[in-house]
Specification:
five-stranded parallel beta sheet, 282 residues, 6% strand, single chain, Oxidized Rhodanese, domain 1, Ferritin
């Protein structure tokens, strides 16, 4: 008898199936990264919870047993073992990502598991969470608006303009939500400056990352892909912050922000598809 027969079999999903699952699922889906912290920091599925395989036996009690679980590692070996261990311990909805993160080819977050969480302390209340989220959206809107003004190509300027409008619309909704609670507008003084540094790896501003990544801001495709990276980072941050929030209302708000960023990603993917189709017919 081979040793694998002692472990409970689990379903393995192809990268495409996993991407569809993540896109279609709400915040009840738990994405579990069983790699080491350094691997996670280099790139991970947005919103993924980090629990290295060596810590799983003691840490699995922290996982919601009633939620579906998508488990992944670098290439699929560690995650298969992790998924089998979880299934054998009562987790009934466990799936393994075949090929691991290497095969994922979807939205990616960067930075350590705690990266950016200083913006959302565990005890943060709903009011301050809204202000912080507004600051993040404001920083992105300002960045997109600046890039729109600097764009040489008209189609690139149009894309940056669309992105800025998305963030502006989101800001207005946050303003209304805040006003419903405190009957006053958001005072963003002192909030904006710190925000853009928490959306990309290593504390870089969006402008610094743009330069380091050598994104051609006159190329629509590169602009859209860069924007998708920023939105994925925001989604990743909100999801991680929601997971550790003490306050129920704050957690619900951060879950809603996670879904909003997922919606932004879907809109950007549609824009990218349209441009790809246009190029194929050119």
């Amino acid at each position: 008898m081979r040793w694998r027969q002692f472990l409970t079999p689990v379903i393995s999903l192809s990268p495409e199936q996993a991407r569809n699952l993540v896109a279609e699922s709400g915040t009840n889906l738990t994405i579990l990264d069983v790699r080491q912290p350094a691997e996670y920091a280099e790139g991970h599925i947005p919103g993924a919870m980090l629990m290295p395989l060596a810590d799983l036996a003691d840490g699995m009690r922290q996982l919601p047993a009633e939620n579906p679980l998508l488990v992944y590692c670098a290439i699929g070996g560690r995650s298969r073992i992790a998924a089998q261990l979880l299934a054998g311990n009562g987790f009934s909805k466990v799936m393994n990502l075949s090929g691991g993160f290497k095969a994922w080819n979807g939205a990616t977050g960067f930075g350590s598991y705690d990266s950016g969480l200083e913006l959302f302390p565990q005890t943060l209340g709903l009011e301050q969470a809204i202000v912080t989220a507004w600051g993040l959206e404001n920083a992105l809107e300002a960045f997109y608006a600046t890039q729109m003004g600097q764009a040489v190509q008209g189609d690139v300027a149009d894309v940056f303009g669309t992105l800025a409008k998305m963030e502006s619309s989101h800001k207005r909704r946050l303003q209304r939500q805040y006003a419903d609670i405190v009957d006053a507008p958001i005072d963003g003084t002192g909030v904006e400056a710190a925000m853009a540094r928490n959306l990309v790896e290593g504390g870089l501003t969006t402008e610094e990352y743009l330069a380091r990544a050598k994104v051609d801001t006159n190329d629509v495709m590169e602009v859209l892909q860069f924007a998708m990276m920023l939105e994925a980072q925001a989604m990743d941050l909100y999801a991680r912050a929601a997971r550790r929030a003490d306050d129920v209302e704050t957690r619900a708000f951060l879950d809603a922000m996670t879904r909003e960023e997922k919606s932004h990603l879907a809109q950007l993917a549609t824009l990218l598809d349209r441009h790809l189709e246009g190029e194929s017919h050119a």
